[in-house]
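Fig. S4 source data, part A: sequence.
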Amino acid sequence: MSITAVKNHSGNTVEAVRAFNRFYTRQLGLLDEGLLKSPFSLSEARVLYELAGHRGRTATDLARDLGLDAGYLSRMLKKFEASGLIVREISEADGRQAAINLTEAGQDAFAPLNRSSQEQVEALLSGLSGERRSRLVGAMRTVERLLNPAEPGEPGEPYVLRPLQVGDIGWITRRQGMLYAQEYGWDETYEALVAEILVQFVKSYDPEHERCWIAEREGEVVGSVFVVRKSETVAKLRLLYVEPSARGLGIGKRLVEECIAFARSKGYETLTLWTNDILVSARRIYQAAGFVLVDEEKHNSFGKDLVGQTWDLVL
C-alpha cells in the first residue's frame, strides 16, 4: 500500500468516527444546553451518576474515572455543595481525602435525570427487534473494548460476543466435529447431529424466543451456544463449546450466563439441556450456574458407549 493510500485510509477512518460522533450526539441531545431538559450539563450529570451509584467517592476518584480536569471538577463540586446536593466527610480509607456523597436533595435531583435517561434510551430502542438490539449491543461492546483496552497487567476481556453471521453454521459444525473426535474419539455421526441441529435452528428461527451467541477473539470464532424454544415454558440450551485456545478465559461461563439471562427475560420457567457425563468441564459450568441433574441413561452414540444426562434450571 502506498503512502498516499495509507493517508487516505487513515483520513477515511477519522471522518467515519467523527460522523458517528455527530450522529450519536444528535440522537441523545448531548449538545442541548441542559441535558435531558434538566439544569445539569453532561459533565455534571455524569458526576451525579457516579455519586448516586457509588458511596464514598473522592474527588481524585471522580477526576480519574471521568477524565475531568481537577480544577473544573473542584468548581463543580463547590457548586453542588452550595446547592445542598452533596456532603463531604473525611474518608475512612484515607484521612487526607474527603468522601463525597449525595444528600437527600441530591438524590431527589438525580432521580428525574436518571429516569429521563432510561426513557430516552428505551425510546431509541423501541423500533428495534430483539435481533437488532443484540447486534447493537454487541457492536457497542466491541467499540468500547477496542477503544478502551485493559491497562498493562489487567486481564480485561479479550473476546466479544456477537449474533450469528453467514459462515458460522459451517464453521461450528466443522469445529465441533473435529474437537469431539480429537478429545473423545467420537465419529462423524456427531458432526452430522450438529449439522442437523443448526440447520433446523436457521430454518425455524424465532428471534423473539430463540438466540445464539458467537464468541469471537481477534476475528476468530472461539465458542458458541444456542437457546431454542422447546415449549411455551421451557427453553433448551444447545451446543455449548469453547475452542481449546480460548479456554480459561471464562467464555463458557459467560455463554451460559447469557442463555440464562435471555431465557428469564423471555418468561421461560425452565432452561434445560442434554449432555454426556464425560464432558466434565461443561458439567461444572452447568452445576455452578444452578442446573440440577434430573435424568441420565446409558446409550451408544457417536461410536462410543456413553451416559447421557438431562440438567434443568428453574428460572
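Fig. S4 source data, part B ends here. The mean pLDDT is 85.
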